[in-house]
Write the structure tokens for this entry.
Amino acid sequence: MATDRLRILHVASEAAPLVKTGGLADVAGALPKALCAIGHDARVAIPGYRSALRAAERHGITWGHDPLVIEAGGVDHRIGVGTVVLDGLTFHILACNELFDRDGIYGPGAGIDYDDNPRRFAVFSKASLALSGYLRWTPHVIHAHDWQAGLVPALRERGFGRVLPATRTVFSIHNIAYQGACEGDAMRLAGFDPWLYNPMHLEHFGRFNPLKAGIVFADRVTAVSRTYAQEIQTQEFGYTLDAVARHHAYKLDGIVNGIDTLEWDPATDPHLPAHFDAANLAGKAACTAALRRECGLADHPGSCVVGVVSRLVEQKGIDLILATVEPYILAGRMQLIVLGSGDLALEHRLHHLASRHPGWVYAWYGYNEGLAHRIIAGSDALLVPSRYEPCGLTQLYAKRYGTLPIVRHTGGLADTVTDVAVGPGAGNGFTFGPVDLGHFSSVLDRALGLYQHFPQEWKAAQLRAMADDHSWHGVARQYEDVYRSLSFAGAREDKALTKPYAMVTAKKRG
Ligand code: ADP
């Protein structure tokens, strides 16, 4: 059968711009769009959360005539299938009042999960598979993301729906720390045979584990960077799934995420007071001066402006920054600007640091898109000392804006930042290895030293950073290679399976 143009259904619990709580949404919104741009028919299925439906309704959602009926643990759920096309990308929104019509996405507040999440995402996973028959659109590949869609490859393999004889599955791990583990009787919701509750399949240390299900049953597995794909096979980074990742390493690859190069473009960024590109960096100096003014920092051009845009949590190594930077600030070598929110104890310590060094340290707590852009553009360097980092985005933005990243050599940071110390004429940032104050101080010393004493070398590193391509276009080609490595033998190129299904245009579900 001709498979030049692949039909690919992405199944994710969030996708930008309809619903976003983290980096998964960026990938689930951007990757299918990039796949469409290279000629494939890629679509996205997401749950119909209240906020997602509101957003979709503003863009003219259409509803299928009849609901899908999905059974879970003896209870039938009626799923409305809404479709909206945004910027050329088709989203199928699976709406179910009793499961998704709530204010929250994963829970009523930060860090609190809804008790019925196993049911919510089991039903979502089943409904995504049933979409094929409902839409009369049979994908070659169903690409499921993270634990919320982890049951999709297992359901497919166990024959759920019986409509996808040749459809293959790909499962992507964005963060292995989140596994959706729950009590074993949740297996009932998906309707798996009880014998699958064993350590080779769906059971993991006495619990049902949807992330493990994705790894075990998918035809191919990807992690969001090459180094992270290796790291999750180790005890340090595997969050107890390292042996599972090792066992399935033969089908595991790492692909670094892309960034939205239109939104993050220093030549056109509407959040910036001045623009620049690699040919003319004058606008960057103007951004730095304006950032100092905006943040109330002293006009001290000899000191390096160092930015942080991050969740304030232990994973991100914020404690290392707090424990290390003061001597450099007192010596007039660096000014620190932090934008973030999270752990209150870390916010408290940052607040104290800033109040001890007015004019040298500035911190803003909360989410602020515009300030994030201005910090990335106006800083000389960006700190990302994460303990682990599956991919990381801020270092990619920083590179594009000629802001040298100072990062821990881990996960996607290791794949995208090369230390200038590798040799003359190479490198686009600074990296350190072990998470301790000694190694972090020494990388800061090196970075500040280069900034102060070797401006030509600094500029050369900036230009190398800016020249790197992190667009989704290149990333989509790598996923295409993964899809093409699968065999679609037996797939039906049946017109009846690809014709558009009947839709009604309506404001309300009908
Ligand atoms: P993670 O997904 O682990 O938080 P990433 O680096 O992959 O880390 O992505 C973080 C994203 O969130 C980036 O786009 C970053 O610019 C943005 N971000 C983080 N904190 C803030 C904040 N306080 N205000 C604005 N944007 C933020």
